[in-house]
Amino acid sequence: MDYIRPAVASDASRIAEIIVVNYRVNFYPFFGNDLFYFGELNVVDIAKEYADGSQKLKNTYVYDDGVVKGVIRINGKEIEKLFVEPQFQGQGIGEKLLRFAINTHNASFLWVLEYNKRGIAFYQRHGFELTGEKVVEDDWVPLLKMIYSSNPLDQSGKM
Question: Who's near 131: CB < 8 A, 6+ residues apart?
Answer without folding.
Answer: 144, 145, 146, 147
